């Protein structure tokens, strides 16, 4: 009959086996989603690149674009868009982004000098816990972000920027380099940096712009902001899935190592129980033999 310690070890083994099944399933799910997210990133890049090229060429055609989204101001308040995950179990994915956020807040002069736009429940929960006021919240989009979500974010920051609520907008997100490398990074979204519009080529030959090159550029600049925001959401989504797959693989490997250890302990306990039972049988037989010899 198994001892209480052996029964406890066997319960622990069953618990670890169940955990391993869950983490293994989550690892496989994350792996399948990585490929889809990576495909979306690669599919969106040509759009952003071509849009950037058209904007650069129009800027060159107009001989130096003038637009409120290009106007650099003295910064009295900065807008910060922070992209984290909606769900956990992704290792240090969200915490790395939040570290960059804390550094940005200090750099801008403290909480009173920033206006936060949070995407993802982890960033929202973190901000609420620290009593950071949020100007914008968006959840439920980090797993498979759509263009409408990027448009919503872009409209929020552009509206506040044009209204003078903020003078600069930075985006903190996670750049997806490959399956093994993702880094929390930051870039300036508004005003659109002048260097991003440099290097364009003037249209050769007879071109008629209707209504005008300036008006076309004016209508494209908000689309450019949306495209940059969409690219950041897609990069973050692919990075989140990669981080979750890595975290779940580590958890699965740890569970397997723990199972090996527990199974060795179980074998030793079973052997100890068997030895104890044999000793009890031998002791009982000896006692009966001595009792028989005295009669």
The outline comes out as elongated
Q: Could you list the spans in which at least 5 consecutive residues all have pLDDT below 50? A: none
Question: Ends: how far apart?
Answer: 33 Å
H/I helix tally: 5
Largest sheet: 5 strands, mixed
Element-by-element helix/strand order: HEHEHEHEEH
Please tell me the CATH architecture by its name: 3-Layer(aba) Sandwich
User: What structural class do the secondary elements suggest?
Assistant: alpha/beta
* Average pLDDT figure: 85
- Identify the CATH class: Alpha Beta
Give Rg in angstroms.
31 Å
The spatial strand order of the largest sheet comes to 3-2-1-4-5
Descriptive report:
It is a single chain. By secondary structure, the chain is of the alpha/beta class. The protein has a single domain (27-248), classed as Pyruvate Kinase, Chain: A, domain 1 (3-Layer(aba) Sandwich), CATH 3.40.1380.10. The chain is 61% helix and 12% strand. It has 5 helices and 5 strands. The chain has helices at residues 4-61, 93-108, 121-129, 147-162, 213-294, and strands spanning 78-83, 114-119, 134-138, 168-176, 182-190. It has a 5-stranded mixed sheet with strand order 3-2-1-4-5, with helices on both faces. Helix 1 (4-61) runs antiparallel to helix 5 and helix 4 crosses helix 5. The protein is elongated, with a radius of gyration of 31 Å. The two termini are 33 Å apart.
């Amino acid at each position: 009959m198994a001892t209480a310690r052996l029964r406890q070890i066997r319960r622990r083994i069953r618990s670890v086996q169940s955990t391993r099944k869950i983490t293994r399933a989550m690892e496989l799910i994350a792996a399948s989603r990585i490929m889809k997210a990576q495909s979306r990133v690669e599919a969106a890049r040509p759009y952003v690149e071509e849009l950037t090229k058209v904007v650069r060429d129009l800027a060159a055609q107009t001989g130096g674009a003038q637009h409120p989204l290009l106007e650099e101001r003295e910064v009295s308040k900065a807008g910060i868009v922070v992209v984290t995950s909606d769900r956990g179990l992704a290792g240090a994915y969200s915490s790395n982004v939040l570290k960059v956020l804390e550094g940005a807040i200090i750099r801008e002069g403290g909480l009173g000098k920033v206006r936060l736009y949070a995407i993802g429940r982890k960033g929202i929960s973190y901000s609420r816990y620290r009593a950071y006021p949020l100007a914008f919240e968006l959840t439920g989009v980090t797993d498979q972000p759509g263009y409408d979500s990027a448009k919503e974010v872009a409209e929020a920051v552009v509206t506040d920027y044009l209204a003078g609520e903020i003078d600069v907008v930075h985006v903190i997100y996670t750049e997806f380099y490959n399956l093994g490398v993702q880094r929390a990074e930051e870039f300036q979204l508004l005003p659109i940096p002048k260097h991003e519009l440099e290097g364009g080529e003037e249209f050769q030959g007879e071109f008629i712009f209707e209504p005008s090159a300036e008006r076309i550029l004016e209508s494209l600049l908000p689309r450019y902001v949306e495209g940059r925001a969409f690219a950041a959401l897609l990069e973050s989504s692919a990075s989140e899935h990669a981080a979750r797959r890595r975290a779940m693989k580590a958890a699965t490997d740890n569970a397997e190592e723990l199972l090996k250890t527990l199974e060795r302990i179980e074998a030793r306990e079973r052997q100890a129980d068997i030895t104890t039972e044999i000793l009890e049988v031998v002791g009982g037989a000896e006692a009966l033999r001595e009792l028989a010899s005295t009669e």
